[in-house]
Amino acid sequence: MNNFFVHYRPLPPGLKRFLLLVLTVLVTLIVVLGFWEPSLQNQYGPGRRQPVKELSGWLLDGPGGAQLLVPQPGQTTQGQTFNRVLLAGPGKTIPPPAVMDHVGDWVKVRGSLFSRGPLDVMNTRKATPMRPPLGTPEANVVGHSEGEFTLRGEIVDSKCFSGVMKPGSGKAHMGCAIRCISGGVPAVFHVRREDGSALDFVLIDDQNQTVNERVLPLVAQPLELKGEVIRFDNLLAIRANPESYQPLKP
Amino acid sequence: MSHQYVAVQWTRRKFIYDAILIGLMALYLLAFMQTSHWIADLRGIELETDGVAIRAYGSAAYILLHLTLAIGPLSRLHPWFHTLLFNRRHMGVMVFLLGAIHVSGWTLPSQPWIWFGMRTPKLPWAFYGSVAWYNNFGDLKPLVSLFTVNRHFGSLALFPFELLGVIGLIVLFVMAAISHDFWLANLTAPVWKAIHMSVYVGYAALVGHVLLGALQTNRNPWLAVLVLSGALALLTLHLLSGWREWRPDRADLAQPGQSWVDVGALQDIADGAAKVVMLSGERVAVFRRGGSVFALSNVCQHQNGPLGEGRIVNNCAVCPWHGYEYELDTGASPPPFHESVPTFPVQLREGRILISPVPMAAVQR
Ligand code: FES
Q1: Which of A246, B147, B202, B229: disulfide with A224, CB 3.0–4.6 Å?
Q2: Is the ipTM of this complex over 0.90?
Q3: pLDDT attached to residue B123
Q4: How many domains in chain A?
Q5: What is residue B365's predicted lDDT score, i.e. its pLDDT?
Q6: Structural domain contains residue A18
């Protein structure tokens, strides 16, 4: 009868020690995994959510999507008169008509700001048109060409990537990125350079139009793009036709 | 055959079992989330808590699934592991719940309020699950998005790993939904067991889900090592225990047409215990009580547990899995229970045990 266990009868003595051993092993396993696994999971990213802010600037639709051109305080450096903040609506959408109806105006917008490196994205629901302050510079809509480049990287949605989600890129984020880009959130080409630094380019076609609907099957996978890099203030854009994007072996 | 239905036949030990189970999982979730915060603080970066919770619950379900699946073969290899087997179904249900929270978040408890158009009370731990967090708030309904957003079916590296997770969760749901003895009795043990074998389909799908999802992006070699060693450990345990089962099954003692088969000496069986022999393709449990022997089908009527690995308690053969009892001479469970197993005619001649391979009809009470 030794060590025969049935749950409605008393526990045989030898088994108690065995069970304590099993329990110790389990607790150790769970604790080790619980503390170790987070460091293995890709759940970190340098993006930041800033407190709700109010910004004023020129509201433009493009390049690559809606954006607010906020004059740089103090001296303006060469070629960068404004800080360009990409705009998105609530969720995975473009800003609502209460914002987009004022394209071309000087407006005030309020919302949460997400920042990752030079990339700023704001969630907005409403833009209030105002008279532009005296001496406000005109927006440069043509941009400044930096030349032809071949870039390797991945298409991400600017909003998740800039801090709404972590890491906001990669295959696991593909579905979400496609939803965002399909909803009109500006699509960005994320390029990691060999020295570990990164550059992000807003995607535009050769007519300077957004490419969102045309790049959905290519989101979150390794790609090679050849095109003209154009600087719009702090924002880099790459002008290339989506048909010319080359998928690379993952 | 019939069962008396009660919600769950609780015993003190089942409460202890479940308390330890829930405690361990809570410990894991806490450790995972807290460590994530520490790492973020250390690196001076912010954390996005929904994503952390999604990963914590997903990995908890995955780990617990391994523990659950390991108990079967372990208790084949050593009877002491039966102590983990008897309440294993609760582990399975827990795996499903963790998986469901991974998918739906703690928005699940808010559904009843939403159905009645009421304001959801704010849960302190509320977070969006993976389906909502990655597919909601867009231009498609979340479920439509989930099933249509990624169409790279031809590429292993880009395959929609989410769909493998859906398959895994459906299997876990079916297991959990029919886990109660009500279903066991009505579907009959063989059918119920057969359905439960699909847990391996679910497991395979979930290995694919983790390998293709987390690992495709997250090329951390240690994560790959963990996932693969989990699968390897389970496979080894199953092969080992399968081999142990298969060996005696090959040694069928009965010759065709033989009416009495010598299955060994009485002394070879410990008093109060049994040995299992193969007769005409059927496993028979041969129990010894003092100088007497009894032969019963080895297949317990509850969940087809190995009766011959049980013991004699109060003149009954007791199944080691959940403690169902069968009278030694009739094979019938003592009243008020109604289960019974077939018995076999036995003779003792000069210390040798002879068994007729033709079973007697099970006694119905
Ligand atoms: S299988 Fe459950 S008691 Fe025998």
Answers
A1: A246
A2: yes
A3: 67
A4: 2
A5: 65
A6: no
Is there a domain that residue A34 lies in?
no
Residue of minimum CA distance from atom 3 in ligand 1: B322
Query: Same structural domain for residues A150 and A243?
Result: yes
Q: What residues make up the domain containing A168?
A: 144-247
State the Rg of chain A over Cα: 25
Q: How many CB atoms lie within 10 A of CB B80?
A: 18
Residue B216 with chain A: CB contacts under 8 Å? 170-172, 250
CB of B305 shorter than 6 A to ligand 1: yes
Identify whether the C-beta of residue B155 lies closer than 8 Å to the C-beta of residue B176: no
Cβ of B51 and A166 within 8 Å? yes
Supply the CATH number for residue A207's domain: 2.40.50
Same domain, A222 and A151: yes
Quick one: pLDDT at residue B1?
A: 40
Q: What is the DSSP string of B278-312?
A: EETTEEEEEEEETTEEEEEESB-TTT--BGGGSEE
Judge whether residue A42 has pLDDT over 70.
yes
* Reduced 3-state DSSP string for B244-265: HHHHHHHCECCCCCCCCEEEEE
**pTM of the model as a whole:** 0.92
Residues of A in Cβ contact (< 8 Å) with B145: 175, 179
How big is chain B, counted in residues?
A: 365
Instruction: Quote the pLDDT of residue A76.
Output: 55
Distance B276 CA to ligand 1 centre (A): 16
Structure tokens at A198: 């990164």
